[in-house]
Design brief:
Blueprint: E1 39-40, E2 43-44, E3 48-50, E4 58-60, E5 65-73, E6 77-84, E7 89-95, E8 122-123, E9 128-131, E10 144-149, H1 159-164, E11 177-190, E12 193-204, E13 210-229, H2 230-237, E14 242-243, E15 252-256, E16 259-260, H3 263-267, E17 274-279, E18 285-287, H4 292-295, H5 300-304, H6 313-316
Amino acid sequence: MVLAASSGAAPSGSGLVDGKPIVFPLIGNYAYTNNYGDPRANGRHAGIDIENVPWRTPVVAAEAGRVRWWTTSARAGCMLYLYGKSGTTYLYIHLNNDLTEASEDSGGCTLGVAYAVSDGEKVTAGEQIGYAGDSGDAEGNHHLHFELHPDGGSDVNPFPYLNAAERLLFPGRIGAAFSLGVRGVPVAGGAGELELRATSVRWWPGGKWTPVVGERPVTLAVSKTAVVDTMLVGTIQGAARRLILAKTAQVVTAYTSSARITPAALRGEPGALLAARVTRPGGTTVAAAVPDDTIAEATDDVLLGPFAPVAPPERRYGI
């Protein structure tokens, strides 16, 4: 397939596109090396291989744009083009074509197997567009081959762009409904907020527990009607933020209220996620009863806009 030229702004040498970082093309904590330009059996390596990626890991849009499927290359397998609004074209290669982890190739390059969006669909930055796999000549080696083409022309080294990229907390389309589970160790709380050193997240609909990059700090606002583990109630109700001693901290899971996805929520910015329930294994929960004067301006509408409260995710999905 020939890449059509575009009049959009080309990426810079600093790893930015139109002066901004791209979104890292996978959700999760996956490493990569600078293997761009390496000699291969069929010529120079034109992208970066992000290796050791579990089967069907979410693949996301590096920027807003339009996607095109490409399914006729024996070497690339199930492949996707993202034509970014900046004019940059991104290639996602070796997407999934299996119905099981056995690499049986029986799923094909189809919606729901290789692709998460329809051919030709417009997408927002960070929206899931595919599933990682081992199609084409990657059989048995689940990974993502990622290319970057300024102005739809020749490939450039994606390494600096991946280094500068934003790693989102979870994937999603801006404006779509979601709820989230965040698992980690509580490190601070007060004034109606709880900060976790998050180690994994799960999103609904369609997600699974996925490791985050390192141990990522995530600060959630706590709903006035939230149900919270008794270990944390006093801390959250306090008028001022205070640290939680590491020796007393235990892993907890915070489940958010149903809301609409915003860029701030995808990034997990402080206050952009509203916790409706906070639990820990073997613990007990009570109503948080966070005083209005404690949470100050952090009301539901200010944080996330209108939303319809729903049952916590573990009740709705049987977890």
